[in-house]
Amino acid sequence: MRRTTLFTLKTPYREPMEIVGFEFGDPDGEEACAIVGSMRGNEVQQTYTCARLVQQLRLDEAKVMPGKRILVVPSVNPFSMNVSSRFWALDHTDINRTFPGYDKGETTQRIAEGLFSAVSSFSLGIQLCSLYMPGEFVPHVRLTRAGEITKESLALADGFGLPYVVINEPTPFDTTMLNYNWQVWSTNAFSLYGHTTEHVDEAGAVLMVAAIERFLATRGVLRLPVSDAVPPRTIEEAGLVAVRTEKAGGFLMRHAEAGDHVEAGQVLAEVVDALDAHVKETLRAPVSGQVFFCRTEPLVEQHIICFRIAADE
Amino acid sequence: MVETVYSAELPVNEHLLVQKNRICGHGNGPRMAVVTGIHGDELEGQYVAFELARRLNDDLDLLHGTVDIYPAINPLGINTIQRGVPTFDIDLNRTFPGDPAGNLTQVATAAVVDDILGADVCVDIHASNIFLREMPQVRINEITADSLLPLAPLLGVDLVWVHASATVLQNTLAYSLNERGTRCLVVETGVGMRITESYGKRLVDGLLRLLGSLGGWDGSVPDALRPTVARDQRVEFLNASEPGIFLPRVRHGSTLKRGQLVGVVCDPLTGTVREDVISEQGGLLFTLREYPVVYPGSLMARVLGGAR
């Protein structure tokens, strides 16, 4: 293992911010796979998962195939994490909306460029991500559609052994994400979403580390036995059935969790008045299927998607 | 008359309300929409909304048509001094045209677009941010230049900047309206969290002038300044190379010579100057940093040079 500094930024009154990378395998080998962890200051689980991956790859370093190189970047934005700020603390910009970056541009563009110049030439790219909505997911692989390369990636995505592969259509704003730009630069890019974001989920981290190693084994980067896995279900994000608070805000009292199988008509949650506890709205499953996403915040506003269900096939 | 464009129940005994003030004159004149407060830390438009409504109400007999004033598209942001939408951590001007079936912020932006569509013209007033002070200017995406350039000088701004199209800007209110056939001009003026009344007064005159050109206002307004139209000129961006405290050494709005010192980045810990900030090309200093703390990359100034 080689620890390297991929990018350094000087700021007032703090030690320089470093983006640290860990390299495994042949130093002059093919840039096989780059794995990027947290980019936002609240992505605790993503950082932890990468730290565990670094630990595991140290144990498995002899199994990296000759001529291959792996790079792991656990934390792109330690400055924000250290001050409990989700986005870049000075101007609240999101580094994951500034790719491919620009070395003469704004601060977050420079950070993005610093990272992207280190990871853009890898054949495979994996990012551990969080969504803007607070909540929990069924662990899955997400592909952002960016032309032919996404079809190619789709054929590789079952290598993770995760139960779902979700394809999403990018908005114009999403074209500034790492995932999208990796693909523009011909990297097969995969975003991994785990169960949680803001707290450490040990079992979830172990699952994701195993998924990444399994994927690396299927791509001939790691010499490891590939465990059996049920082929994933591939779904379009737009095909997930949303359940929203249509009428009311209040306390969200959930009766279903991410991963649960629910029947059509089943009560998923109640919206309870915050002052007198009467039930203002009942959220029911419009279809039978697996709860793919559930909101976990105790309070909820009107017009908030609280569940997404992968309907039974 | 105050009308609610969008309402959503918040968790505890409150509604989020996006409201507009519809001021109607007589006759079937044009409809002008004036929007501000998409970013909660930009307050220059608050004065414009107030002053425009006051002047229209004072001389209602001069108004032919309708003026809709939307002073706070992000009411929670203005209320709590946050640029984005509190709780959601979202820049509202990256969520247009919205989605009626989506989450609250998307539903709100969809309702705003739906409400404005069909207006004869819309003006979306921004105030840069807390970091930068801007000369009053209209910014026009190059793909809409043909339809908007004739209108922009009426607003009485110093500068009309026709900028290159960028994919991310497709999620702004202005892009969403222009794409759907409702002309929308974007104004940037002043600085975040402050009100520059002199700029605001000019802009109110400009809005009445624009309305008058469409046949909706009979009142007199002073002649507009002739703005510089930046289309082919080179805009020089001065970003910090060093961290520290930026101290300007020139006046905002001045014309710089080539090689002129714009400011310094200093280090209060050591009492040294870390960087001299120089404009290589010279020209009109239309953007100047207001907030002193800088990181490498922080924008300190924009200078409009001569033709490419």
Q: Rg of chain A, please?
A: 20 Å
The chain pair forming the largest interface, with residue counts per chain, is: A-B, 41 and 40 residues
The percent range for helix content of chain A is 10-25%
Please state the second-level CATH architecture of the largest domain in chain A.
3-Layer(aba) Sandwich
Helicity level of chain B: 10-25%
On the 0-100 scale, what is the average pLDDT of chain B? 96
Looking at the structure, the CATH topology of the largest domain in chain A is Aminopeptidase
- Tally of separate domains of chain A: 2
**What gross morphology of chain B would you assign?**
globular
Please state the structural category of chain A.
alpha/beta
Please give the count of helices of chain B: 6
Strand-and-helix sequence of chain B, N→C?
EEEHEHHEEHEHEHEEEEEEEEE
Order of helices and strands of chain A: EEEHEHHEEEHEHEHEEEEEEEEE
Uncertain segments of chain A = none
Biggest β-sheet of chain A, characterized? 9 strands, mixed
Say which CATH homologous superfamily of the largest domain in chain B is assigned. Answer: Zn peptidases
* Model regions low in confidence, pLDDT < 50 over at least 5 residues of chain B: none
Broad CATH class of the largest domain in chain B: Alpha Beta
How far apart the termini of chain B lie comes to 49 Å
What does this structure look like?
The mean pLDDT of chain A is 96. The longest helix of chain A is centred in the C-terminal third of the chain and has 17 residues, at 202-218. Chain A is globular. Chain A has two domains: 2-235, 3-Layer(aba) Sandwich (Aminopeptidase), CATH 3.40.630.10; 240-311, OB fold (Dihydrolipoamide Acetyltransferase, E2P). Helix content of chain A is 21%, strand content 33%. Chain A has helices at 44-59, 78-82, 107-119, 148-156, 178-184, 202-218; strands at 2-9, 17-25, 30-38, 68-75, 124-129, 135-137, 140-144, 164-168, 188-193, 233-236, 241-244, 250-254, 261-262, 267-272, 279-284, 289-295, 299-300, 305-311. With 313 residues, chain A is an alpha/beta fold. Chain B is an alpha/beta fold and 308 residues long. Chain B has two domains: 2-229, Zn peptidases (Aminopeptidase), CATH 3.40.630; 232-307, OB fold (Dihydrolipoamide Acetyltransferase, E2P) (Beta Barrel). Helices cover 20% and strands 36% of the residues of chain B. Chain B has six helices and 17 strands. In chain B, strands 1, 2, 3, 4, 5, 6, 7, 8, 9, 10, 12, 15 and 17 form a 13-stranded mixed β-sheet that branches. In chain B, strands 14-13-11-16 form a four-stranded antiparallel β-sheet, with no helix packed on it. In chain B, β13 (260-267) and β14 form a beta hairpin. At the A-B interface, α3 and β17 of A face β1 and β16 of B.
